[in-house]
Design a protein that fits this description.
alpha/beta; Ribulose 1,5 Bisphosphate Carboxylase/Oxygenase; four-stranded antiparallel β-sheet; globular; Ribosomal_uL1_3-a/b-sand; repressor; translation regulation; RNA-binding
């Protein structure tokens, strides 16, 4: 059995026996043990009682975190003419049409969010096998297929987070940085949980939210009391 490093042992000891904490206590524990040499991301993971293989149990949505994510989001926009100009003026990092499609097809993906005007979807549709697995495919349900590209770019750069249930019914996202004020992190966590609750699909049966965990990029995870995370 591999010998554990000092940092790993310290983390395990700090988190041992601590679970089902309030949001505030979990955040305090995570912040106090986020000792990496960079500003770690605070991540949330929610285990849901859904099977996303069934269309009526898919959980997908978007939420604007009240205090942002602390992350610099690179945004690509597929648009032409005036809409391309709007996107650039709004701060999009990459704007293009067929030329951008060719860049992406070549394997160069230097963006975290992809937005497109509706008329560009026949072009973007050819990139499904490339963008789909990376959860970058524009989708009208989360506001990334829109004529209001300027607002979409501003939302993406202003702390908007997309979420989508994976095969096991797990939804996860970054909800801020360890350097954030604890109260702001707690507000972001509850905003995210609220958005996932509101996205409950019609086909969900039984308990919808089974477990909520918080962790930092390099830290251990801790389970959170679901009632503490619920705002309504």
């Amino acid at each position: 059995m591999a010998k554990l490093g000092k940092r790993t042992r310290t983390l395990r000891e700090a988190f041992a026996g601590k679970d089902n904490l309030s949001v505030e206590d979990a955040i305090a524990l995570i912040k106090g043990n986020a000792t990496a040499k960079f500003d770690e991301t605070v991540e949330i993971s929610m285990n849901l009682g859904v099977d996303p293989r069934h269309a009526d149990q898919m959980v997908r949505g978007v939420v604007g975190l009240p205090n942002g994510t602390g992350k610099t989001v690179r945004v690509a926009v597929f648009a032409r003419g005036a809409k391309a100009d709007e996107a650039q003026a709004a701060g999009a990092d990459i704007v293009g049409a067929e030329d951008l499609m060719e860049i992406v097809q070549g394997g160069k993906i230097e963006f975290d969010r992809c937005i497109a005007t509706p008329d560009m979807m026949p072009v973007v549709g050819r990139l499904g096998k490339v963008l789909g697995p990376r959860n970058l495919m524009p989708n009208p349900k989360v506001g990334t297929v829109t004529m209001d590209v300027a607002q979409a770019v501003k939302n993406a750069k202003g702390g908007e987070v997309q979420f989508k249930a994976e095969k096991a019914g797990v939804v996860h996202a970054g909800v801020g940085k360890a350097s954030f004020d604890a109260a702001k992190l707690a507000e972001n966590v509850r905003a995210f949980v609220s958005a996932v609750q509101k996205a409950k699909p019609a086909g969900a049966k039984g308990t919808y939210v089974k477990k909520i965990s918080l962790s930092s990029t390099m830290g251990a995870g801790v389970s959170v009391d679901i009632n503490s995370a619920v705002t309504e």
